[in-house]
Structures are given as C-alpha cells and as structure tokens.
Amino acid sequence: MTPEEAFDLHHQAVFSFVYRLTRRADLAEDITQDCFLAYVRSPERFDEGRGASLKTYLIAIARNLALKHVRDYGREGQIGDTEVMISAESGQALDVSTAVESAVASLPPLQQEALALFEYEGFTLEETAAMLGTDVGTIKSRLHRARERLRQVLAPLERVGGFHGES
Amino acid sequence: MENHERKDLTDAELDVLLHAWQTPIAPARLRSAVFPKQSVAWYRRWLMASIRIPVPVAIALSVLVVMALWQWGSTRERAGAESARKSFASAPPTITFQGFLPVAELRPRIIRSHHARN
Question: Are residues A95 and A164 located together in one domain of the fold?
C-alpha cells in the first residue's frame, strides 16, 4: 500500500480520533498531518509482521502526538473537565451531537481514550488495551464506568428525544 | 409535580446517542499538506522522468538494440572496406625517381626465340 493509499483510507479515522480526544478541529488537523508525515518519511517503521494493522499504528502515532501536545500546552480550549448538566427543558434546543460531545468531554481522559478507541474507532478490547498499554480488564472497567456516567448524563436528553415517556 | 421520572438509558439507547456525535470532516487541504505538489521545471521533470516496463519487454528491446547495433557496425565495416578498395584501385600510381641510379655496366644477353633457331 502506498502512503497515498494509506492516507486516503485512514486519514478520516485519525482525524476523528484526535478530534474526539481534543475536541479541536485545528489541533486534529495538525496532529493528523504530523502523523502522516511521520509515516510518509519512514514507512519502514510500520512492521506488518508484528500483527498490528496500519490503522492501529497510525492511531498510536496520533495518540502519542496528542498526549505530547497536552503535556506541552495543557488542555486549553477544550470542553472537558467541565460539569455537564443536560436538563430536559434545555435538551430540546440542544443539538444531540454537541450534547454527547460535552458529556464525553466530562469523562476522565483515560475513559475518553478507551471510549474513543473502542466505541468510535471499532477496535477490539485487546487492541484497545494494547494501544493504551494496559490489560483488557482495566479497559473493560474504564468503559463500564464511562458508560454508566454517560447513561446518567444523557438520560434527560433521551427523555426529550422520546425514548422515555412523552406524557 | 415533577413528572420526569429519573430513569437511566438502556445500552441500546446509549449506543444510539453515542453515535449521534458526529466529528467534522477532515479538511481537503490536509492531503496537499502531507503530499505537496512540487513545482519542478519542465526540463528537470523530463530528466527525472521514469517509465515502468515489464522485464520481458525490456530484455526483448535490449536484444533488438544490440542486434541493430551489430548490424549497423558490420554494414559500416563492409562499406568502409569497399570504399577503401575502390579508392585504392582508382588512385593513380605515384612513381618517383628518387634513389634511381643508372646501371653501371650493361651486359646485354641475347635470348633467341625457338623459331629463330630453325
């Protein structure tokens, strides 16, 4: 696979992943660019024989770059670390996508990472654990806690959306 | 009275909601940032251009070129030899009297012919 083909196939996934971690389109763009430049300059660093897919390799690079950015510049400009309150009344006017984004941003970073990889990028528990350098049990635990939190935070939104009683 | 009963979402409902979060589309300029189109002068592009041909075709072409060169070389050699021969034949003989000395003593010898004896 040529670098151009790899870019066409995976750049949106890398961009989305970084966006879900940082919630900044400009940063997602920069990191996706750096990620692919690193791959284009040294494609031999990706060793297919190790069993990991190219997507896993690229996402791992993007994650490292995102973490480096957070280390260097902090988490400025993010929605995260804010308490999200979605009331039934405000829910009607609230865009569902924005509400979910805010809810996910309220999770601890480790839970956000696990959620982004497992729920949104479709990696398996094993792949997610390998990428995050931990074991499957820890990933399961993080995902469970994340989902429990989101279940509570997003409940009012769904009630307005019509799942829970319209009386 | 508050009629909103606190009820958590089911897994299916949560999944639907989670996937309602749409991320922006990656900008198109990202591609040109990763793979910049270099403005190279036409002659440099021409000098650096390469073509890909299958090995059998390359071998066949090489054989044809070698045969053509050999044919051309032998024709040229023949033509050269022919023209040299022609020029040698048509060239007027050059006779000089350099080193020519008159005979010091003449010794004439008469050879009779066979008919003269009878």
Answer: yes
Tell me which amino acid residue A14 is: V
Read off the pTM: 0.62
- Could you say which residues from 129 to 158 on chain A have a Cβ atom under 8 Å away from some Cβ of chain B? 147, 150-152, 154-158
Point out the domain boundary residue: A59, A78, A97: A78
User: Does A104 sit within 8 Å of B26, measured CB to CB?
Assistant: no
Q: Could you give the CA distance from residue A145 to residue A155 in angstroms, rounded to a whole number?
A: 15
Check CB contact of A30 with chain B, cutoff 8 Å.
no
Q: Are residues A44 and A116 in the same domain?
A: no
Q: ipTM for the complex? A: 0.74
Residues 6+ apart with CB under 8 A from A31: A14, A18, A22, A62, A65, A66, A69
pLDDT tens, N- to C-terminus, chain A (167 residues): 788 888 999 999 999 999 999 888 999 999 999 999 999 988 888 877 777 788 999 999 999 999 888 888 776 544 344 444 444 444 444 588 888 999 999 999 999 999 999 999 999 999 999 989 999 999 999 999 999 999 988 888 765 555 444 33
